[in-house]
């Protein structure tokens, strides 16, 4: 996929477009579809085995990388139930299963062509972590008291001191452990900006000596400098927030394009931003169905987040339109068969994403068509036009001006039509048309 840079004009619904600024082929975004698995929704006990039984379904969503949220032993002292409160970096949460269970999960995923990354919490530990025996491994106040990460409101965890070389060595050794013993393929690094850049640079370089180019590193953060540390993927927080604002009627699509452009400034060739309409943090506050008004709104938002540049993420539960806030602190039962039509739509969308070189590698043009997101990819004589109604109203819009008259195939239905000068879209309706 390209690093996409946009110029945007006034929102005049003219159907005229702007070319992207400096297209450049990457080597991450067009290879990765991430699936974030929250173990607490797969089974009340033995979640690792439960995830393993669902690998075929996860793969069918186009997944190339499976991200497991923290599966380590959790702290008890001052704890609130967060899996990001780690008591032992090298010990599994016994409720999730055994070392053999996680080895089996990773091996089966590899057999199915998926890489596996673990969630890594390098900024802090639980208050009952064995590392507490080494007080200098932690940040202290003026009175010598170990403190929580400053200004974050995370009283359940203790802040690590990266000025201590022994702590850094222990952290790196723990990261190597799971790659060497279980053969995982990398990490999603929680609150990456809380950890010094030089540690990430050292850690990623050393992990690559074990895993080579197959190592995949995702940073939860927004700073472009994280790419220089060696991360392949960095969150696109601003894009996700702006996407919500667009669907709430509080922002315009031109602002979303601008945010995308800003997030890609300085991103090296071969690196990408992570794109999502929800994730574990957002879903814990509100279901995507609440954020985007209903099932169709949530689907429309996913189409934009997965197809308007960047690397797409699916959070476990959104593919079946789970309609309540979803805690990752406690077990929640999910009926994976509750919405087969919705699930199949996700599968079809990701099949289109993975099979379309035009979508993943083409140059991009965006169009000003009011509250309808319109963008066109072209590659090697082929084209792909995506149009998405971001409102709960029926909208009449002009077809992007140079696309009117094109013979196109609707990739969701197979129907072949000649694009009219104008068309209407039902609430949250979208089209994905391929031009030969």
From TrEMBL:
- Which terms does the UniProt entry file under GO BP? oligosaccharide catabolic process
Chain ranges of the Glycosyl hydrolase family 13 catalytic domain: 36-360
Q: Which domain of life is it from?
A: Bacteria
* SMART domains linked: Aamy
SUPFAM superfamilies with a match to the protein in the record = (Trans)glycosidases, Glycosyl hydrolase domain
A molecular function GO annotation: alpha-amylase activity
Write down the InterPro entries for this protein, in alphabetical order. GH, GH13_cat_dom
What is the protein name for this chain? Answer: Alpha-amylase
Where does this protein come from, organism-wise? Answer: Bacteroides stercoris
